[in-house]
Amino acid sequence: MLLQEFVPLSDSVSYHISQHSWRRGMSNFFIEKVPFSFSTSNEYAQFCIDLMRCFKQDSHPLSVLEVGSGLGLLAKKIISKYESEWPDQPIQFTLSEYSDAVTEGLKSLDFVHESPNVSCETCDITRPNFSKDYDLMLLTYIWDVLPCTILEFDNGNCYEWLVSASISDELIIQDTTSMPFKTLGAAQIKQLLNGTIPDQYLALLSRIAENIHYQWKRQPFDTSQAKYAGLLQELQKKSEKHQQSFFMNYSDSLLDSLDACIKQFQGDFVLLCHDFAHTRPLQGQSVEHTIGRFGLCQFYNIPFYLIKAFCENRGLQCITSQYKDSDNQIAIISSYTDETIVNNFKALLSKKEPGMNSYEVAQLYLNDDITTANESALTEDEKSDYYLLFCKAKHYFKREQYNDCLTCLDLLINDYGKAALSAFVLASKALRKLKFQKEALELLSQVDDTSYDAIALEKVFIYAEMADKAMMQESIESYFRKDLKSFIY
Fold this sequence. Notes:
By secondary structure, the protein is an alpha/beta fold. It is built from 21 helices and 17 strands. Strand 6 and strand 7 form a beta hairpin.
C-alpha cells in the first residue's frame, strides 16, 4: 500500500515520524538510543571554556547564548567552570528554547533563578531575534534537524533525490495503547500517519516505522533556481572540473538561519557548531551517507564545506575540525581576523576529537576487556562521561557487583538528575538484586513514570516481588495508561 508518492526528504513520512517522536520528550533519547552523552558532558563544557580562552579579553566578561538548552545540563556545567576560571568576571549566560512554553520550564531550574547573570529567552533558530548582543553562540546538534533535500552532483550534473513510502497491504499492528487491545490494519495505519498523530499513539511509532519501505529516485535539479544558487553552482563547476560525484544535503532553512544569526551580532562574535557533518564533498558517496539514524530518529548531515563557502563570501572565518572516521565535526565561525586568535581556533580543533578517550574505555567495559590502566589516563572530566559510567555500571551488573554498579549510577543521577532515566532503571534493578525493593521504589518516585515506560514497568516488577497485588495492578495501569479494572477477572 502506497503511503506517499515521491517527495523531497523534508516532506517525507520518515522526516515527519522523526519530528513527531520528539514529542515524547527526554525519553526519546533512551527509547531510540540517541547519543547525548558528549554534548552534555563536563568534557564538552571544558571544550567551550577552552574556546573562550582563544579570544577572551582579560577584563571582559563574556555574554553567551546557548540555542536549544534542553534541560540546562550543559549550561550549568559551563557556568560552573567559567566561574572557577574567571571568578571576578561573572558570565552573562542565556539559555534558550524554540517555544515560550519550553523556555518557561528552563526558568524553573535552580541555577537559573538563583543567579542574576543567567537568563532565558525564546529563540527560534530559523528566525532569531536576540534581546541583546552576544560574544559567543552555542549550537549543539541544532542544524541537523532542519528541513533539507538531498542533492547529487555527478560530473557537473545536479540531481535531487526524492523518496516514496509504502507498507504491506497485509500489515497488522497490535495497538496496546487502549484496552482491550485493538488491531490496526494497513488502511488505518495510513490514515494515522497522514493525519495529526495523537499523543497516545506516539508509542506505536517505533513499530510502525520499522515496517515502512522506502524507495528513492533522482530527478534533474536546476541549481540556478535555488535561493543560494551561487554556492551550488560553484560546487557544480568543481564537480565537472574534477570529474567528481558526491551527495549532500541542501537546506535553505539552514543558510537562512546562519545569515539571520550573523546579522543579529553587533560586534565581534564566535559561533560554535557541533554537529553531524561532512567537511569535504567526497565524504558523501550515497544517499545513506547524508542521513544518520537512531531508531526512527533521523539527523541530516551538514555540509560544513558549504557553510565555509557561505562565510567566506561574507568575510567571516569558518574553521572546521577534521576528525578522522567520525560522523561528528565542529565548526568555529567567527568575525575575528586577528592571526593569533585564528591560530588559537585552529590549534583547538587540531586536538583529538573530544569524547573519544572516554568512548574507547567505555567500549572496553562493554567487552569485559578492562584494566585499571585503561582508565587511569583519563581526565576527571572524561571519567564523568555518561556513556562511560553507564557502560561501567552495566559491566558491574553483569558481574553481579551490584554495589560497584550503584556507585557509578549514583554519580550519573547526581550529575544529570531526572534526565538520567536509564540510570534510574538500572539502579532499581541493582537494588532489587540486593533485596532493597523499598529503596528501589523510593528511587523511582523521583521520576515521572509516564515519561518513560521502563520506569512504570520496573515498578510492576518491584511490587510483584513484594507480593503487593493492588500496587502491581496500579503500576500496570500506569504502564498502559488505562484503568484495567473492567478487564481483569
